[in-house]
From TrEMBL:
Protein name: FadR/GntR family transcriptional regulator
Gene3D superfamilies assigned: GntR ligand-binding domain-like, Winged helix-like DNA-binding domain superfamily/Winged helix DNA-binding domain
SUPFAM superfamilies membership: GntR ligand-binding domain-like, Winged helix' DNA-binding domain
Cited Pfam families: FCD, GntR
Domain of life: Bacteria
Record-annotated HTH gntR-type domain positions: 1-69
Keywords assigned: DNA-binding, Transcription, Transcription regulation
PROSITE patterns documented for this protein: HTH_GNTR
Organism name: Gryllotalpicola daejeonensis
Length: 227
């Protein structure tokens, strides 16, 4: 079990067994992390994940509270999981992305200059194992958009950008809950850049396809595990 998943489970158990009730304020971070046997970083990521699905309410400068836990509130926040179960929304968006983005990256290969590749490498260098989930998601969006723009096809670039909005919650959730999400993302982005720099359009196409297919696979497994 990933460390963040373990942290989420422990906080959830506190709510289920009554140690935390709707409206209760969570103990201070240091105290809670020690009592649960968790690092403060994993506890923070767990709190972010539970905030996304409206189990916790983080009030800046005040503290973190358990929400009302009303069914309608939770169902609304988990709508993207329902989409996964029905294979009608997020997975379909990723399938379209898997068709279009490798084509855009292949087009970019013939147009990318040394300066373009250097700029993308500098972007990669700003991300490491200490990067927050928000930082990782922002990097992921910027990296893929940067390659799409190099395709020289404005319509294709805009179409891929429009797809990104529907994938945002899935990207955030993956970053919060999948073990080694940052390291895996960076390794795959570096492999794509190496292929781009080599000028091999078919290799670029293949690596982008594998990269996106890996996310699709994670989404299917996430849907199955939460069904």
């Amino acid at each position: 079990m990933a460390v963040t998943d373990e942290a989420i489970l422990k906080i959830k158990n506190m709510i289920l067994d009554g140690r935390l009730r709707p409206g209760d304020r969570l103990p201070p971070e240091k105290e809670l992390s020690e009592s649960l046997g968790l690092s403060r970083s994993s506890l923070r990521e767990a709190v972010k994940a539970l905030e996304i699905i409206r189990v916790l309410d983080v009030r800046r400068g005040d503290g973190t509270y358990v929400t009302s836990l009303e069914p309608q509130l939770l169902l609304e926040a988990m709508s993207f999981v329902v989409d996964l179960h029905e294979d009608s929304s997020v997975l379909e968006l990723f399938a379209v992305r898997r068709i279009l983005e490798p084509a855009a990256a292949a087009l970019a290969t013939g147009r990318a200059t040394t300066s373009d590749v250097s700029r993308l490498r500098e972007m990669l260098a700003t991300i490491d194992g200490n990067t927050s989930v928000d930082g990782l998601v922002a990097h992921d969006l910027e990296f893929h958009q940067g390659i799409a723009e190099l395709s020289g096809n404005g319509y294709l670039t805009s179409l891929l950008a429009s797809l990104s909005g529907g994938m945002m919650r899935a990207r955030v959730w993956r970053g919060l809950t999948e073990a080694n999400a940052i390291e895996r993302t960076l390794a795959e982005h570096r492999a794509i850049l190496d292929a781009l720099e080599s000028g091999d359009a078919e290799l670029v196409r293949a690596r982008v396809t594998v990269h996106i297919a890996g996310v699709e696979d994670w989404l299917r497994r996430a849907a199955s595990s939460t069904a």
